[in-house]
Amino acid sequence: VFPSLAQAQASVANEVYQQLGQPSIFLFCPTEYCSSLCSPSPSKSCYLLTLGQELLPGIGVIWTGPKVVSRELSAALLEEVEGVLQRCPVIWDNLYANDYDCRRVFLGPYTGRAPGLMPRLQGLLLNPNCELQANFIPIHTLGSWFQSELRSCGHADHAGMETATALEDSQGIQEGSYSPQEALELALLDWVAEINRQALEPGR
After folding, report:
1. Residues with pLDDT less than 50, the chain
2. What total number of domains does the chain contain?
3. Its Gene Ontology biological processes (predicted)?
4. Any bridge partners for residue 61, and if so which?
């Protein structure tokens, strides 16, 4: 029925999106969801070019970066992806994912993401460790990164700035660019306090 996989996927996604009343958040994960899966590159991928042309503008497209698990995300890469998809991508960040190797747990700060990425993102999802409590530092430091991005983003909305102010009041983060080391230290302080609080609960 369809001349290509991309056209088939776009047709189905568009129909579902419309049947649901075009919700404000509707995410589509492409078959080529990172640079290493694109042939020969994101900007020259016939598959992604077709999706960019065929998918309705309100549909968000998920992207993981250069690889499935990306150590770094750059503004240049996101600009390339935005150009081919004709929309800012939703980053599905696998930095902390350990479902492919459950012998490992990732406890470091959110890092490797260039400052000033927020204007090039439609959203950001963090794929966490499988172990729930191991995600305290990842989520806490992601919050610090987000706050720093809001401060540096000239067109942050009012609600976002209120969120940033509340985070700043609670965490004591200083003005300036995001520091993974400072974010880690703040997260550790709060995590130790949380562990001590739980240790004092009845039945612990």
Report:
1. 155-156, 158-174
2. 1
3. glycoprotein metabolic process
4. 28
